[in-house]
TrEMBL record:
It comes from Kaistia geumhonensis. The keyword Hydrolase applies. Belongs to the metallo-dependent hydrolases superfamily. ATZ/TRZ family. Keywords: Hydrolase. SUPFAM superfamilies: Composite domain of metallo-dependent hydrolases, Metallo-dependent hydrolases. Residues 53-419 form the Amidohydrolase-related domain. InterPro entries: Amidohydro-rel (IPR006680), Metal-dep_hydrolase_composite (IPR011059), Metal_Hydrolase (IPR032466), MTA/SAH_deaminase (IPR050287). One of its GO terms (molecular function) is 8-oxoguanine deaminase activity. This is 8-oxoguanine deaminase.
């Protein structure tokens, strides 16, 4: 792209004072062009956005990309979380390897990008023997596609035999986990503005990691200035597990292990009572709302409005592609609106709320101030959607139409000022070949039933 580009005259743009578009310069938003205005300085090129509705690039705060290999798996469909995990853990532990993990990551990142997602975070907690370089694989795949990524170094170290629910074939020694966390941070964590890769540390959940791992992870994150992530309060079974094994509820557990901090963001965060919501908000703990997975597994309804009001950043996640079962973040925006209205009412949750969760809210969960909005100085990460399909015919409000009429793909996506999706596809990626190769390796997971 030229040095200074005017994204000119979109149908609508999710930003205040940008009716005539946005000027991009050196990978950043340099100027918003208001109604009736022209750019204040000369531009080197113009992109005609008159067919497009423009939003900030969507930000995904929770995923399990390896699970694209077990979508709609016969052993796991029509189950809630704990029996679903019991069915799939042994299959994952025995079959995930570097080759199929790379393809799973590539497929998930490509899906996300096509949906309008420009920044992804994958909670990669599964480490069977041979997959020790999972973070390196994901860093390579994110770089190949040009997607920003938080490499979320997850972990398991508490098996069924030890009172947890992790499969013995997928756990690691605590010291090995912490050593690799330090390695990944040293190699990939870039805290600078505009970073393409950052690192977060992510023990999986109270029911499959030890307290020691949680405590030492918190200390390491503090020392290395990075964020932390874990599942919490996703199901009532988890509440019962914490009360039975620890003698208290999940938020008390979070406080005991040193995670009641704004460095932390939690996946799901469904079953919090009023006092817990207040405590989380006061500490600035973020919550990744995963509406699609929550509905598929019948886990419950996140208290998004109360959490935000209390002070917690609320972001959006697609969750694992075996509990969604896809990697489409604009679809999750729609699901967040629908489940939000069912939880509250039609006036309390709007399409703008759902977009906020998927953009600025998600960016706040990841601890990023440089993305998540179309504003001067922010990174030039934007998604461009058309309204050409039949589903949009007759729509009055273009931004609301993306959500209410069910947009499912972007026509163009820009990351750091560069086009990463053009005419609905990533340049240089053979989607048919990717589909074939991923499907080929996924067949082994079906044979494992």
């Amino acid at each position: 792209m030229a040095d200074r580009i005017w994204v000119k005259d979109p149908i609508a743009v999710l930003a205040e004072g940008a009716e005539r578009g946005v000027v991009v310069e050196d990978g950043r938003i340099a100027e918003l062009v208001g109604k009736g205005a022209e750019p204040s300085h000369p531009v080197h090129g113009v992109f005609d956005a008159s067919r497009h509705v423009v939003t900030p690039g969507l930000v995904n705060t929770h995923h399990h990309m390896f699970q694209t290999l077990t979508r709609a798996h016969p052993a796991a469909i029509n189950k809630e979380l704990f029996p679903w995990l019991q069915a799939l853990f042994p299959i994952w532990a025995k079959n995930v390897n570097p080759e199929n993990f790379r393809l799973a990551t590539r497929l998930a990142l490509t899906e996300l990008l096509i949906s309008g997602c420009t920044t992804a975070s994958d909670h990669q907690y599964l480490y069977p023997p041979g997959l020790e370089e999972a973070m390196d694989i994901q860093a390579e795949e994110a770089g190949r596609l040009g997607v920003r990524m938080t490499l979320t170094r997850g972990s398991l170290n508490l098996t069924e035999e030890e009172g947890g629910n992790a499969n013995a074939g997928a756990v690691q020694d605590t010291d090995a986990i912490l050593a690799d966390c330090e390695r990944v941070i040293a190699r990939y964590h870039d805290a600078s503005d505009g970073a393409m890769l950052q690192v977060a540390l992510a023990p999986c959940a109270p029911f499959n990691v030890t307290k020691r791992l949680m405590v030492e992870t918190a200390a390491l994150a503090e020392r290395c200035n990075c964020h932390m992530h874990t599942h919490l309060a996703e199901t009532r079974d988890e509440i019962d597990y914490c009360q039975h094994h620890f003698g208290y509820r999940p938020v008390d557990y979070l406080e005991e292990v040193g995670w009641l901090t704004s460095r932390a963001w939690l996946a799901h965060g469904i079953h919090f009572n009023d006092d817990e919501v207040a405590r989380l908000g006061k500490a600035g703990v973020g919550v990744s709302h995963c509406p699609t997975s929550n509905m598929v597994l019948a886990s419950g309804q996140c208290r998004t409005k109360e959490l935000e009001a209390a002070g917690s950043p609320v972001g959006l996640g697609v969750d694992g592609s075996a509990s969604n079962d896809n990697s489409n973040l604009i679809e999750a925006v729609r699901h967040a609106l629908m489940i939000g209205r069912l939880t509250y009412n039609a006036e309390s949750v709007t399409h703008l709320d759902a977009f906020r969760w998927a953009t600025g809210g998600s960016a706040n969960c990841l601890g990023r101030k440089d993305i998540g909005a179309i504003a001067v100085g922010k990174q030039a990460d934007m998604a461009f959607y058309t309204l050409d399909e039949l589903r949009f015919s007759g729509a009055g409000d273009p931004l609301a139409a993306l959500v209410l009429c069910g947009a499912y793909k972007a026509d163009r996506v820009m990351v750091k000022g560069d086009w990463k999706i053009v005419d609905g596809v990533p340049p240089g990626v053979d989607l048919a070949e990717l589909r074939y190769e991923h499907g080929r390796v996924a067949k082994k997971f079906l044979e494992a039933v």
